Amino acid sequence: MRRWNGWGDSANDYPLKPAGVAFLQQALGPGRPLPDASLESVLARVPASRLAPHPLIDTDAETRLRHARGQSLGDWLAMRSGDFRVFPDGVAFPENSEQVRVLLDWCQAEGVRLIPYGGGTSVAGHINPPAGEQPVLTLSLAKMNRLMALDEDSRLATFGAGTPGPEVERQLAERGYRLGHYPQSWELSTLGGWVASRSSGQQSLAYGRIEQLFAGGRVETPRGTLELPTIPASSAGPDLRELVMGSEGRLGVITEVKVRVSAAPRDEQFHVAFMPDWPSAVALARRLVQERVPLSMVRVSNPEETRTQLTLAGHERLVAALHRYLAWRGQPLDGKCMVTFGVTGDRRHCRHALTEARRYLRAAGGVTTGRALGRKWQEARFRSPYLRHGLWEQGYAVDTLETCVDWARVPQTVAAIEQALRDQAGEGERAHVFTHLSHLYAQGSSIYTTYVFRCSDDYETTRQRWWAMKRAASDAIVEHGGTISHQHGVGRDHAPWLEHEKGAQGLAALRGLFTHFDPQGRLNPGCLLED
Amino acid sequence: MRRWNGWGDSANDYPLKPAGVAFLQQALGPGRPLPDASLESVLARVPASRLAPHPLIDTDAETRLRHARGQSLGDWLAMRSGDFRVFPDGVAFPENSEQVRVLLDWCQAEGVRLIPYGGGTSVAGHINPPAGEQPVLTLSLAKMNRLMALDEDSRLATFGAGTPGPEVERQLAERGYRLGHYPQSWELSTLGGWVASRSSGQQSLAYGRIEQLFAGGRVETPRGTLELPTIPASSAGPDLRELVMGSEGRLGVITEVKVRVSAAPRDEQFHVAFMPDWPSAVALARRLVQERVPLSMVRVSNPEETRTQLTLAGHERLVAALHRYLAWRGQPLDGKCMVTFGVTGDRRHCRHALTEARRYLRAAGGVTTGRALGRKWQEARFRSPYLRHGLWEQGYAVDTLETCVDWARVPQTVAAIEQALRDQAGEGERAHVFTHLSHLYAQGSSIYTTYVFRCSDDYETTRQRWWAMKRAASDAIVEHGGTISHQHGVGRDHAPWLEHEKGAQGLAALRGLFTHFDPQGRLNPGCLLED
């Protein structure tokens, strides 16, 4: 069963290995485990619903509790401490667009706020019900999870918006296709959520971001139904899909999503190589993408991430062998950077792409190591969100943040983000910070930074230290011209930084757009744009 | 000097060859040349300007005449007959964003309508001044035509929005880069115009549409300056660039454009092959793009276009040799379809891409013919707009239209468009109609149809027959789920069909957006959205 206060299914458990615990104790000092609240104690704190009865709405306390929080570190601390603060007044599970329409109209008539809910995996506060006098209905798309149509000529699949990643791929694979959108939240996050938050997946280099995959669909808005027809490309005015992507529930509920699918690949491989240092690794990444080497993913870890990953993974014999090999090839062990890359397609394509990648790697002083580490990456590719559990049990907290900047700004931005996090770890505390580049573009790169820190003696101090670090890193991001989010969206947590990137004119235009579709302001208030 | 009543520089002249004239006479009957108005006679019809004097505004009659019309067939008939109807009251040539700001504010204060003007190459009535009591200022970006900045790390170039295609590429080539955006209007059309109308170029398969190239810039709107920062990718809410692209002057004046550039390619080749019939040619095109064969352009001509191109090109010996070769290879000569394709990149890439393309061609029953015809295509790639002159001298008119549909709809849509044009040629008249697919997408393809018809005895009847054909083809396009424009934009001519694709909700949202930026409705009224 899905955890009520953490990530994933409770059957999946990945405790930290002893070498990992020792590594963190050395880096941060001994952990300080905080006590977890019990489900019963939290259930007792769920207030009575303020909603009038409705046949499509469930007001059961546990259902409401299980839809009250996402997966930000702030949400985690709330769930673990039991201090949820606000619960939705009810949860609806419509089975089709018509029922969504009914619920939306009902919310308008009854003065109820509505929060669209996909997989509940937001790490930015998208689905957290706001406090206030108006009752809040959370609308889960969980029952709209089927492949509704497949146009094989045009490679277009229509899904219910609540279809989670594994169900998308399972239903497509049966017919020989793949969507290829693999965010780290893939096990739980949904197509509709990906569209609403402009998501990006690990293999965006081959398959594109959700922007390239989302071909059309249906959105129920307070003003009426917005149908987005499928047209491969058009010069007929601004593209309405672009208004829906990233709208984060502010203009309507996405109910059906049409996506561009590909043939299931005949071959796919992931490889790992090592570069001698960070500047040469960044230069290699830029060169691979600007020279259009047709890879399906590239991830370049900085030295601290490389060291941390190799230690936490716990493959001690494999890593020892790797180090012997790198030493034999004359690669420095300190400061080395891991480069994980993938090729996807038919065999001829993969062979060509691998040859090209190796050519650039060699020319830049890199050492390739074959497929063993690549296979390990592939096995563990969706396991990162579980890491929080293993750390938590040892008394540590972990969070991640990401941005995207032009190549000219990458090195300084990485340094500034990491420094901001370290500086704000708190009196007498340290943060263990590491970074990778992934989602490469010819223009620049995403920057994905992880920070681990030791809990304080109580939840509130821990939360305040987390927020001080996140705030300082967010300030550093916008000061360096980065987006406040490359793949997680804005939600409530990132909204204060949005104006840096959109400008006052841009924010006003977005506000006008949302008011056009939702004149009463019932939809997900405070999300994306601060109220 | 640039022609005042036609396409391009008057030094460029491509009269129809005798074989072409004979071909058309057989297809359509003898041409009926219509008399051209003289520049003097039209100048005499330019009324006095209604604008108050302003140091940045030119009210000279010839300047106003030369900015009154674009390049649609309707514009052509107006220019050739001398019946321009409406002229702008003045033309301004600002040299920087600050002067654009001054002019925009002045128009607001004085109650003047403003039409942004790039290269004046619109084929949909974008820049035609509307009749009415309010005076009209045309704002030409012609003096804002320089490369202002180049970030080589991030491969970003900043240009004045009025920079025309050849100037873009010349200034980039000096530094080793290429934009790679080559619409047929390339000789005259501008970066700002490409953004405002969501343009696409011949090599969009490699370089992307303007959507993929436009990285940010500056827009002066009545509400203030909208700065679009460069961020490679973002999940932070709807992308403001997407509101600007396709806005067709309705929300502001684009003054600076930042574009993503590529290294100048080390190798580039264009090749021609032939497929035995139209269904197999369409299937090949779909397969090439869905299997991701890395070509930089593909154009698939239907049998009528193939026959027409080979005849009009006038390379009689080359074509005779081609026919002998195709016969020897067992290819049928009737019904054959020409496939023009290109590879662009370094030598290894081009070799790989060519090998792959030939493999798919052979498997589908195609015959490759080497580079001779590909070189001819390359030499003449921007010559199509001049064709109207050669035909006109012989008493024929020509127009083109385009759409884009999902692959499942391609064959029926082509047939319906062609049939609509033939059916509406007029009593006792015929239309010579042919089509190609270019701008391929995994989801579908653009459809580009050319129609040639004989002029009537007078301009007005000719115009009415043209509009009857265009209207019927536009109806056929939207009935088949196509966009009313894949690359030319909406302007005034296509506006009646826009609601089919945007829906009432979508149109209302766009109208709200434009009203937000331009509350007085001074900017390009009637363009994109009907008033």
Automatic annotation (TrEMBL), chains A, B:
Its cofactor is FAD. Gene3D superfamilies: 3.30.300.330, 3.30.465.10, 3.30.70.3450, Uridine Diphospho-n-acetylenolpyruvylglucosamine Reductase, domain 2, Vanillyl-alcohol Oxidase, Chain A, domain 4. Substrate binds at residue 388. Keywords: FAD, Flavoprotein. Signal peptide: none annotated. Transmembrane segments: none annotated. It comes from Alloalcanivorax marinus. Coiled coil: none annotated. GO terms for biological process: lipid biosynthetic process. The record marks 299 as: Important for enzyme activity. Residues 84-264 form the FAD-binding PCMH-type domain. Belongs to the FAD-binding oxidoreductase/transferase type 4 family. This is FAD-binding oxidoreductase. InterPro entries: Alkyl-DHAP_Synthase, FAD-bd_oxidored_4_C, FAD-bd_PCMH, FAD-bd_PCMH-like_sf, FAD-bd_PCMH_sub1, FAD-bd_PCMH_sub2, FAD-linked_Oxase-like_C, Oxid_FAD_bind_N. FAD binds at residues 116-122, 248-254. Pfam families: FAD-oxidase_C, FAD_binding_4. The active site is at 448 (proton donor/acceptor). GO terms for molecular function: alkylglycerone-phosphate synthase activity; FAD binding.
